[in-house]
Queue: 4 jobs
Job 1
Amino acid sequence: MTKLREYISGVVKRGGWRVAVAVGLLFGIVLLLLPSGGGSNSAQSDAVTPTPVPAVSIADTETRFANALAQIAGAGRVTVVLTLKSDGYTELATDREYTERNTSNGTDKTQSADTVTVNAGSSQQTPIIVRRNYPEFQGALVVADGADDPTVKLELTRAIAALTGLGTDRVTVTKMRNNP
């Protein structure tokens, strides 16, 4: 930013304020002429169509959580089981068209929707994502060696609640059985 300020000061000193204004106007015109990034379907639409969120592996999430929780002092071996309340989905922008037909019972409306896309380069079209809703957890079970210690149990409960967004009443922490 300081280099730009120095450059502008130099232009003003050499050519006066009129040259600086001309350069600024030229820069503004160039910015207006640049493409705005809209693709072939650049029309905005508030209609959306839900589609699946890219797969979130619940097994991978459980493993990651278990590895993190095992780092808590006194936790020992940890296993995590998560249940989902809902799967996630992504809402894509669509351009809806409505068609009316006359029937004997009156007017029947049908609709079709095309997903709005933008040019992503190399003749690739990318859909416009309006909203992404990730899977929502319903409950969590944590089985750990150190769960018989109340302090460890509390730390495990608080940690899994923080990771999942669940209330502590939806998290169960229990002692792992001893393997002979």
Job 2
Amino acid sequence: MKIKDGYRLRKVGNNSIVVAVGGINFTGLITVNETGTFIWKMLEKGAEAEEIVTALAQECEVNADDIRGEVLEFIEKLKGADLVE
């Protein structure tokens, strides 16, 4: 799984925003917090969902089972916005 070409994450204050580059017709604004930024950056590297869950759980020092649903939901939202291939 990977973020589609043409989309970048830019830091704005404490959040990040998704911007379209290279002539992509993209309207709207997507903002993500630190956790969303972590997931986005892993997706840019081509990480799969379970790999992201494990890495985030280690980063946040929490049980992977406690965050799996939220991580998968966020990834599904990115897919729904056609940002992931």
Job 3
Amino acid sequence: MARIEPTVESNCTFDGAFRLDAGGDLPSPEVRYAVYGELNQRRDNAILVCHALSGSARVADWWPELFPGVFDTSRYCVIGANLIGSCYGSTGPSSPNPVTGVTYGPDFPLVSIRDMVRAQARVLDQLGIERLHTVVGGSIGGMQALQWAIDFPQRVERAIAIGSAPLSAMGLALNHLQRLAIQLDPAFRDGRYAPGEGPEGGLALARGIAMLSYKSPELFSQRFARRPNRNGEDPYRSYADRFDVAGYLDHQGEKFIARFDANSYLVLSKAMDTFDLARGYDSERDALRRIRARVLLVGISSDWLFPPEDVRDLAQRIRAAGHACDYAELKSSHGHDGFLADMDQLAPFITAALWRPSRNPVPITRPQVVRTANL
């Protein structure tokens, strides 16, 4: 598949301080964004795609299967924005503080999903986009889509959140252990490590723990079972020799440390933890009553990081608050990663949602879907 390049890729720099939910601010932060396609004359064809924890503004790099079929750039203007706190062009822990000239490192402030969404709104303001045709994302990207629908109800026609809901206690526990793995690495140095000298072992271990929550027992049994590591190691003869599944997890960690920053991992995983639909409002119901967009929530059958029953229950609460919300479910053995691995199922759901009238409930009628039409 040929790599699809953005029509425009640039940085949006904010004037002055950007206030944060937890207190404090970021002085003149930057947000990296990428645009695929062009705005039409009515400027009503913009789709904002929100990335997951280790994604970037370059949507076609990590969701290539959706171009050009679902995200038809002759029809839509598709926009990606790198999260504040990340390490792919937006202001984050590895960026220099413009006030001190020193890299933020562990002094980077706590940011929330709400902060990230407000930063994206500022980018859209500078691009002259008042209203979104659709906002869509998976995992932490789905959290952003939901936050958009609540905080900016007049700016969103459709919101699609895939494999996403407020984290359960199990999800919080897994994120805690991942951050702890990074912080206990001697190379972490309280977050003040030099470039290229970070806590590689801790970050790789954190990624390995995360991969357990991204996959499913069924998939691991199919792929690895109890086979020795495919490079010929014999775990029955040596402590050091691994089973195949251990080799896979170690390989995933090795790949990850080459492309991600440990402090950014702490920042973004903590933002996932603190995602709470009621934050800033009197109650979750009051927050959900603000929604004006047509919402589609997609659960993943084997996801145990965001169990489908949690996603389905959130859809019920949105409908109980008086707003249209469809629920669809991917039947996948890929676990949470189903939103990246099972494009043959996901693509029709998104396509149908893009074409559906924004306010009138229309049921999904795709053969792959396990659907609750009237929750």
Job 4
Amino acid sequence: MSFSRISVTCFVAISILSMAAHATEASFAGNSAARQAFEKLGTLVGSWKPQDTPNSKLTIIFSHTANKTVLLETWMSGERQHSLTVYHLDGESLLATHYCPQGNQPRLKMEAAKTIGLIKFGFMDATNLANTEQSHQHSLSFTVPKNGTVLLRNETYLSGEGIDTSELKLVRSDKGMEP
């Protein structure tokens, strides 16, 4: 093989690797609505309690994992873990998978929201759910405050018996700092 052929081969290989690295970097960078929402949700890191019932055993803990590419929302009832919702980007989409005590795992996708500060998810599909007549989380939304004082969390469960909607007003129970 001649020197010029080796040079061309090396140039092509380096170019391909460079494009692949740039594509990977672009998938974790950018300023898409999903990225902005994920970053906004990241400001929730810490512990939250219901505003109206400060003595409640319920604590919701937000934490990052996987080099801050995944956000965990862990519901605790006293010392016992109740449920878990995992948020992550998938290209230009923000997904949430809810691991429910009912044993199903609805996957929700961020939808466009017309209200500033609102991050809204709608049902996409689910695992371990025979049909949508079984009770499952069908939507989820957050109104994230600019000043970080009160977080409004709404969710809707859907079943053959109808719709069950709940709203939680949450306040920080810590400083919201990650180690």
